[in-house]
Amino acid sequence: MNQCLIACIAEQRLYFFTEQGVYFWPISSALKGVGNLKNSNQTPLGWHLIRAKIGQDSPIYSVFKARRPTGEICDLASADKNRDWILSRILWLSGMQKGVNRLGHCDSMQRYIYIHGTNEEDLLGTAASHGCLRMQNDDVIELFARVNSGCPILITENNAVDCLANLPTEMQNVNANYQKQKTMLNQLFTDKNLTAFSKELEGAC
């Protein structure tokens, strides 16, 4: 199935584009803004892919450390606000643009950039994370069930409507080594589908 995720920092929303239509959910990106350098605690921009899906069949609010379930179930009401909780599911991102978000001092995978559930669901829609993309726990479980490993994801400062308008140009930034992702994007974002997606977004936003 052809699919793509677009995380819009300006809107604090994650969009999931499929042949069947568009889904979207609130997120929290980094409190410190956007940036691709290691140890910045910022959310990296550019094209990524889902390298690994972690947490299949784990109970909601399951706690993960180093990408492994601890056996704990987080109580959102009493959870330590000073701890960066990784809950329910993990979608581990890997950059697709060498020198931007892959290899060297800007490698998103080595930075452990995830999409994951959070204890701070009340902060979704605002910048609050340590660099990852946080989601409501129910939402990340839904996304996990729908999205495939290898799915491309663009993290952008633009809003979704403007991003779609510029997407043919943005797609040229995907490294040629990622042929599967380039093919998926070309098949999903045809002129016909771009028009349909844009109308759907205008009705939803």
Automatic annotation (TrEMBL):
Keyword Amino-acid biosynthesis among UniProt keywords: no
Lineage top rank: taxon:
Bacteria
What pathway annotation does it carry? Cell wall biogenesis; peptidoglycan biosynthesis
What keywords does the record list, in alphabetical order?
Answer: Cell shape, Cell wall biogenesis/degradation, Glycosyltransferase, Hydrolase, Peptidoglycan synthesis, Transferase
- The answer to whether UniProt assigns keyword Hydrolase to this entry is yes
Pfam name, any one: YkuD
Q: Which residues form the active site?
A: H116, C132
- PROSITE patterns in the record: LD_TPASE
Q: Where is the L,D-TPase catalytic domain?
A: 3-156
The record's similarity note reads: Belongs to the YkuD family.
Write the protein's name: L,D-transpeptidase
